[in-house]
Amino acid sequence: MANAFRLKASTMFSRMDDEVNESPLRIVFLSVEGNKTERQYFEYIEKYRNKLGIKASVHIHPLQRAKRDNLSAPQDVLELLEEYLVIRKNDVLPKRLRKVIPKEYSEEFINRYLKAELDMKDEKVKIFEAILEEAGYDVAYNDYLREFKGEDDVFGIVLDRDYKSHTVLQMKKIVQECMKKDYKIYITTPLFEFWLLLHLVDIKSLSKEQLECIKVNNGVSEKHTYTSKCVSDIAGHSKSISDKVFQKYYLPKIDYAIKQAKELCGDIDELIGSDQTDESKMGSIGTNLPELFELLRNARK
């Protein structure tokens, strides 16, 4: 990644700490593949956390990125998480950003800026912020991410299996990297919309042919694959999920989706599949997302 900084609020982001009175014991930070569907879904999970039985001391935050950021390969999703971790661990600007800042801005000036010790109305400060903005650095959102921490936070990524775009080897390398760094990884086969579909239909009622169409998941229009079209036909939305739709179709059925998911494949190796045959490369239909909800509700790793 060149000098593009991907952690950006695509909207006026909601500051969780405005509504949190206690010091959160744990925040689950997620880097997700989709810039709309997944992010919005998990933002609603945070919004309606009390109704979902999530522990008072546990919160979830899907990392935001710019509207035009459509980088969704597994490595890109992991990279976004690690960009956040650099910001979190270092109370300094990222090295890549420091390279584009003129030498007239000393380390002392930058450190005082980061600690909010400067007059924000000062002309030099305004020019400095314009430089950061030009470099693609979202000052407000990155400051928020740097400050908002729990005591026992969890970091994870949410991926589609999507055998048409991601090879078995790609997926396995990402899993190995996440395990090595103690990141959580949540995979849905064939893609996240199948997790949404688990809220909407009785999977056992689907025919063998319908399940095969879900697994192959061919495109059926410019907007939809077979699976996303199934979701759209029932819930009436495309990529974006409104609050009203979430409350009607997803919020009341989350435990139903979890129950159905547990009756399907939840093993990461099986979700990814193998290179033995064309069929095995697709992976097994299912998801391990129930593990995320157990984490949120039980407050244990």
Please outline the major beta sheet. 5 strands, mixed
Ranges with pLDDT <50 over ≥5 residues?
A: 1-6
Tell me the distance between the termini.
31 Å
Helix content: 40-55%
- Order of secondary-structure elements: EHEHHHHHEHEHHHHHHEH
What is the helix tally?
14
Q: Residue-averaged pLDDT, rounded?
A: 86
Beta content? 5-15%
Strands, count: 5
Domain count, please report it: 2
Gyration radius (Cα, Å) is 21 Å
Description:
This protein is of the alpha/beta class and about 300 residues long. It is built from 14 helices and 5 strands. Helix 7 links the parallel strand 3 (about 155-160) and strand 4. Helix 2 (about 75-90) packs across helix 6, helix 8 (about 190-200) packs parallel to helix 10 (about 225-235) and helix 8 crosses helix 12 (about 255-260). It is elongated, with a radius of gyration of 21 Å. The relative contact order is 0.15. Residues about 1-5 have low confidence and may be disordered.
What's the arrangement of secondary structure elements?
Elements: E1 26-32, H1 37-47, E2 58-62, H2 74-89, H3 95-98, H4 107-114, H5 123-134, H6 139-147, E3 154-160, H7 168-180, E4 184-189, H8 192-200, H9 208-216, H10 226-235, H11 243-250, H12 254-262, H13 268-272, E5 286-287, H14 290-298
Parallel strand pairs: 1-2, 1-3, 3-4
Antiparallel strand pairs: 4-5
Helix pairs in contact: 2-6, 8-10, 8-12
In short:
The protein is α/β, with parallel strands linked by helices and 301 residues long.
